Amino acid sequence: MVGTLTPPYYAVIFTSVRTEGDNGYAEMADRLAELAMNQPGFLGADSARSGLGITVSYWKDMESIRRWKAQADHAAAQRTGQEMWYASYSLRIAKVEKEVHFPPAS
Amino acid sequence: MVGTLTPPYYAVIFTSVRTEGDNGYAEMADRLAELAMNQPGFLGADSARSGLGITVSYWKDMESIRRWKAQADHAAAQRTGQEMWYASYSLRIAKVEKEVHFPPAS
Predict the structure, then answer these.
(1) Size of interface A-B (CB pairs under 8 A)
(2) Does the pLDDT at position B105 exceed 80?
(3) How far is Cα A59 from Cα A12, in angstroms, rounded to an integer?
(4) Among all residues of chain A, which has the CA nearest to that of B55?
(5) Chain A partners within 8 Å of B85 (Cβ)
């Protein structure tokens, strides 16, 4: 779980419904997670799936998100995502203004 | 899955790790979801859990979120949440600036 960060920073909220079957998805997801971790401005990400999947990744600023969107391997995955892996998805870009943690950060 | 909304609006990103056992959690979650739906300014919510749980709720503005935080039954659930249901959680408030959908909204 992504711990304490210092607002303001950005969140990319990716909500998705998968198609049937793997079709190379798991391998791509692992590879993209590793790629994201090495992107400038990447602050962390949390994922959960139970029918609906939600991944929230956190970024230093909009410029980091733009660079990540344009990254070549990621752009290829975006195309394959629409063709094979996702029945539907929503992606939202939001500026985090405040955060609270329990137990409180020491 | 929450569909097309019109930015700017607000997201509350709630990430949590549960304690063992139900302890009345499922009943509270159902009740709170119903309460939230009837709050002024509530726009929708998505949830997923696989070990980590992520719930993202969407709100018209900060004032709607403040009212929801202060709502009496919700405030009681917040206390019990810290005592019984959650080993840890993070709550982030973010202003959604942009959204993209696939398939594109018609």
Answers:
(1) 118
(2) no
(3) 8
(4) A54
(5) none
